[in-house]
Amino acid sequence: MNPSSGQDDQRPRLHFTPPGNWMNDPNGLVFCEGEYHLFYQHHPFDLQWGPMHWGHAVSRDLIHWEHLPIALAPDEHGTIFSGCAVVDENDTSGFFGGGKGLVAVFTQHAERPQTREPLQRQSIAYSKDNGRTWTKYAGNPVLGDESVLDFRDPKAIWHEAAAKWVMVVSAGDRVRFYTSPDLKEWTFASDFGAGEGSHAGVWECPDLFELPVDGGAAGRKWVLMVSVGGDPDDPAGSGTQYFVGSFDGTAFVNDHPSDTVLWMDRGRDNYAGATWSNIPREDGRRLFIGWMVNLKYAGVTPATVWRGAMTLPRELTLADTAEGPRIVQQPVAEVERLREEIGRWSDTVLRSGAEWTGDASGNALEAVAEFEPDTAAEVGIRFGTAPGEETIVGYDARRGELFIDRTCSGRTDFHELFPCRHAAPLDPAERRLRLWIFVDRSSVEVFAGDGRLVMTDLIFPSGPNRSVALYSLGGDAKLSSLTLYRLA
Ligand code: FRU
Description:
The chain has strands spanning about 20-30, 35-45, 55-60, 65-70, 80-90, 100-110, 120-125, 135, 150-160, 165-170, 175-180, 185-190, 205-210, 220-230, 240-245, 250-255, 270-275, 285-290, 305, 315-320, 325-330, 340-350, 355-360, 365-370, 380-385, 390-395, 400-405, 420-425, 435-440, 445-450, 455-460, 465-475, 475-485. The chain is mainly β.
């Protein structure tokens, strides 16, 4: 990064970034009175992680964000770690004089005086003016347990059938469920996770929601998402796993054997994601956003003005498969409003070793492509940003894997694990190869098979997109269709 020019011209055009300084997890995702709120872990005075505050922005379309003043700042109970926000419709908390308002539920992080180990407890705050100003509850913290060091990231939901609030919160190698009538008094209900799924790192940022399977044709299931800090020896680093099962307001029961591991995203850079609460029934979408980074290098990505970006907001659905229901992700439909078509191509043969190249300038591009790999060993799209600088999204037909290659994508020297080509298996049923790709100034997101396999990666090119090139290796392939858009 050239410090004299600052980093502002490198800002993603579609992806949320903080006005300045450090950002990590999305927090307090809630929809209220026509606005989507996005709070986030924020160090307002430094490009590095430090005393955490909640930054704040609002949007009416999930694309254009208005930055608002810091919502929550550290106090005598500690700094403000991750958490959620809910609309207390019926004033169960008593904060709103019989009306409704927003309640944030979050972790406060402090140090134990003797050992200097973390002391993490849950607190609440309320807002009567749609999130513009917040009052911390005088009875904070509302939930503590000094027997666990990592006790954080509460997600509270109103459980209709049980008619009470449920909180899921991470507690070391598991999550715990608590229930409450009023968001103030919490009673332990159960725990889940010891020996289940991936334990490659600390469990953080749980989320819990119910979704119809195949639009309701195959019933409904509960999803429990948990971010996993990552195995120090595994180059894949941090990621977000999910469990599918049932939840009765008290206990989560996993549908799968405990050694099944399901990942939300098979790219390197999607962590600590969460979903919006209180989306109106007539909309009904389950909307997700993640912090676009890997813990392996979160503190050393090129930055002079701001550090940290979110994924595109995505809609989550559950699709029935032979192995059971699986999460499908798609960018929210609102993104389509930004499309300016660059061109459309169909039924083109890609000769082995040759390239089909087109101009495609723009800070943010969307490509919708369908290939038939035929005899090719590899097919792919190169997104060129400067001579010799490109990011490749491709398919290795011999291994049946989708890959992103960011080896020559621009700045990669800030961490040894950053320059890489990495891959994930594509369901054989998806081998007609439908790719939906978003390339912004510092990221690439690939939704394959309509979003059944997703890969999200950061990139740091020296400039905006300039060209696309389609190629085939080791045999001919067919490009059934390609539509390219500039997103403006
Ligand atoms: C995840 C996380 C959370 C914590 C927050 C602190 O990235 O470690 O578990 O609440 O970040 O900033």
